[in-house]
Design brief:
0% of the residues lie in helices and 42% in strands. By secondary structure, the chain is an all-beta fold. Strands 1, 4, 7, 10, 13, 14, 17, 20 and 23 form a nine-stranded parallel β-sheet that branches. The relative contact order is 0.10.
């Protein structure tokens, strides 16, 4: 489902997109604005579940599972809000804020991505009260290039490998985040060596 040519003021509600060659939902240009995506589902698409460019977009209560390039990318623009979305088993990054300032990312569940759970390459954003767990290339990452002046507040990070939080830029503020390591045999990479036995010891493949 594509919004193109400066598409504005659209409400995209309760649609399901599965097994597409590209993205599930795509707002195409930086000129797109004021678009709302609510309770949509994107499963098994080769691109992103949602690829959103432009300004003042809202992503609310969407479910994005097993999408090939990632769950969500927030691209060129500003002021996009993503709240209470479920992003699961993304084949690359779960939720990617790319060259997008003043984003608000809150109360999302981002689980089981093959790379980062949430990756922020933007400034002046807020990442608040997200549950980020079992992602295989760190949980919450601020880009070393352009991830400055962001607020990370009250996020719960569980067993992301190798790090729950990676922050290497300037003037970011981290308050009240829970950094919970893996319990024995909880490592999301354990399948590579055959999993665990009843005594919580790894089995060699």
């Amino acid at each position: 489902m594509h919004l193109v040519l400066g598409s504005t003021n659209n409400w995209i509600i309760e649609n399901t997109v599965k097994n597409c060659y590209g993205d599930g939902f795509h707002s195409f240009r930086e000129q797109d604005s004021n678009n709302v995506f609510v309770r949509n589902t994107a499963v098994g698409n080769r691109g992103y579940g949602m690829s959103i460019q432009g300004t003042n977009s809202l992503l609310l209560n969407n479910t994005l599972i097993d999408n090939g390039t990632g769950g969500v990318i927030i691209g060129e623009g500003s002021n996009t809000v993503g709240i209470n979305n479920i992003i699961k088993d993304s084949r690359v990054t779960g939720y990617f804020v790319y060259n997008h300032d003043n984003s608000f990312t809150a109360q999302n569940k981002v689980v089981g991505s093959r790379r980062e759970g949430i990756f922020v390459q933007g400034n002046y954003g807020i990442v608040q009260k997200n549950y980020i767990a079992y992602n295989r290339d760190s949980g919450l990452v601020l880009s070393p290039l352009t991830g400055a002046n962001n607020l990370l507040l009250d996020n719960e990070l569980v067993c992301n490998i190798p790090w729950n939080i990676v922050e290497s830029q300037l003037n970011n503020t981290l308050i009240g985040n829970e950094d919970i390591p893996c319990a024995p045999c909880e490592n999301p990479r354990s399948k590579c060596d055959g999993g665990c036995n009843e005594n919580n010891k790894y089995l060699q493949a």
